[in-house]
Amino acid sequence: MLKKHIENDDVIRLISHNDADGISAAGVIANAIKEEGGQFHTTIVPRLKSDIVRDLAKEKYDLFIFSDMGSACIKQINQSIKSDVIIADHHQPSDVEANDNVVHINPHLFGIDGSKDLSGAGSSYLVVRDMDKKHLAYLALVGAFGDMQCPNGFSGVNQMILSDGKESGNLEIHEDLKIVSKANEPLYKSLAYTLNPALPGVTGNLEGAIGFLEERGISYGIKFDELSDEERDVLKDELIKLNPEIFGDIYAVPKLDPVLRNLEEYSTLLDSCGKNKKFGLGISLTLGEKDKALDAALNLQNNYRSELMKGMEWITREGSVPMDYIQYIYSDDKVLKSVMGTIASVGMSAKILPEDKPILALARLHNDIKISGRTTRPMVERGVDLGKALSDASASFGGQGGGHDIAAGAMIPFTAKDNFLNLVNDIVESQLNNN
Q: Whose CA is closest to 154, among 119, 189, 201, 105?
C-alpha cells in the first residue's frame, strides 16, 4: 500500500508517538519514503485521542500512517478516516476489527508479546522491509532499546530484525561494558548516567560514582578511553560485582557518528529530544543530519541528565508511598515532571525502591495528572497487567490509559487522584489473586 501511494506522488501523512520508540518508528517510515523519492508530513504526539483523529480526518491526504500508536483507536479511525490507513503499532489493541481501508500491523494480533518481542519501530520496519529496506533494521532496534526490549538480548520478531541488520552489513555486535557516553563524558558521569542495566549505589548518584572509583584507585575525572588496560580490567571486574549484566553485547553501526554508533545510546538521545518536545530534531537525527543537529541533541541530553540526577536524589531521599498492592510517587515540581516515569523505573532496577509492587509515577499537569506505570517481569508472570489496569481505572474517571503489561500510562483529572490509586490497587489485587 505504501509503495503504491509513493508511486502516485501522494504526500504521506505520518503520525507517531513522542518517545524514543515512536521517533524511531517515524524515522524508519520517513527514511523509506525519502529513499523512494516520496514526500511525507510528520506529526509527533504524546497520545492519540479522538479529537486528534477527527482533526486528521479533515486533512486531504490519501494515506495516513500511524506508527507506535493507533491500535487502541481502531473504532475512531474506522469512523473518521476514509482514506487508506496503515497502523504499525505494538501496544495492546482494542477488540474492534479494522475496516477494509485499514492495514493493521500489531504483534498481539498474532499472539506475539508486543512488550518484549516487537517495538513500534519494529512494526514500522515490517511495513517497509519488503521494499528492500533491510539496511533500516538498525533503526527498528533503536526503537526496541527505547522500549527496553533488550534486557538480555533480543527475542521474538526483534531477533529476525537483528538478523536483517547483520545481513545488511550495517550492524555489528561485540562484547564490552555497557556504560554510556564513554567518548564524551568523564568516567564518573558515564557511570552515574548508566541506567540500563542499573548499578546500585552508582546509577543516578554522581557522588556515589566518584566514591566507587576512588575506592578502587581509578581517576574519576578522565574518560573511559583514557584508562590503561589494567584500569579497564579492574573497572570491569568491579562493575560486574555490582551487576553482572553491565558486561555484554553492544549493538553498533560503525558508519554512524561515534555518538550514535551504540544503538542503546542512540535511543537515549532520541528520548531526550522527545522529553524536551524537540520532535523535529529527533526526526532529523534519524534522517542522517549531523553537526548542528547532533550538537543540539547532546545539549538537550545533558539538560535531561541533570534533571534526572535531581530526580534520583529526590527518590532516594523520599522513597515511594506504599499501598497494599502498588506503590506510587507524586510530584508537581516543574523539574521532576519530565523524569517521573524514568526515575520510577530506574529506582526499582537500582534497588532504591521495592521491586515487589508495581509503581505508578504521578505528575500534575494543571488540572490533570499524567501517570507512568512500571513493573517487573516477575510481577507480570504473577498476573500483573498494567496496561489493562490503567486503561480500566482511567476510563472510570473520564480519563484515558493503556500500554503494555509491564509498562503503561494514563491521564486522569487531578480530582480523581486518590480514588484512581485505590482502584488500581484493587485491580492489581484482583489480577494477582486470579492468576
A: 119
232 close to 213: Cβ distance less than 8 angstroms: no
Q: Is 400 helix (H, G, I), strand (E, B) or coil?
A: strand
Task: Report helix, strand or coil for 72.
Answer: helix
Beta-bridged to residue 401, according to DSSP, are 410
- Per-residue pLDDT tens digits for 411-428: 999 999 999 999 999 999
* Predicted confidence (pLDDT) at residue 334 exceeds the cutoff of 90: no
Copy the grid coordinates of residue 393.
Answer: 481505572
Q: What are phi and psi of 346, to 5 degrees?
A: -70, -35
283 has a pLDDT exceeding 80: yes
CATH topology for 319-434?
Diaminopimelate Epimerase; Chain A, domain 1 (3.10.310)
> E strands of 139-203, at which residues?
172-177
Q: Counting beta carbons within 10 angstroms of the beta carbon of residue 225, is it exposed (0 to 12), middle (13 to 18) or buried (19 or more)?
A: exposed
Tens-digit pLDDT profile for residues 172-230: 999 999 999 888 899 999 999 998 889 999 999 999 999 999 999 999 999 998 999 99
pLDDT at 426: 97
Residue with cell 497487567: 385
If pLDDT is split at 50, 70 and 90, which confidence band does 287 have? very high
CB burial of residue 212 (10 Å; 0-12, 13-18, 19+): buried
For residue 315, give the amino acid letter.
I
Cα dist from 38 to 14, 41, 255, 321, whole Å: 13, 11, 25, 51
The model carries a pTM of: 0.85
Q: Quote the pLDDT of residue 124.
A: 98
**Binning pLDDT at 50, 70 and 90, where does residue 60 land?**
very high
**For residue 239, what are the CA distances in angstroms to 47, 179, 316, 368?**
38, 10, 21, 41
C-alpha count within 13 angstroms, C-beta hemisphere, residue 380: 17
User: Pseudo-torsion of CA 43, 47, 52, 56, nearest 10°?
Assistant: 40
Among the four given CATH numbers 3.30.70.2740, 3.40.640.10, 3.90.1640.30, 1.10.10.410, the one describing domain 2-166: 3.90.1640.30
Is the dihedral angle over the CA atoms 280, 281, 286, 288 positive or is it negative? positive
Q: What is the model's pLDDT at position 273?
A: 93
User: C-alpha angle with apex 117: 67 to 433, nearest 5 degrees?
Assistant: 105
**pLDDT band at residue 296 under the 50/70/90 scheme:** very high
Q: First-to-last CA distance in the chain? A: 41
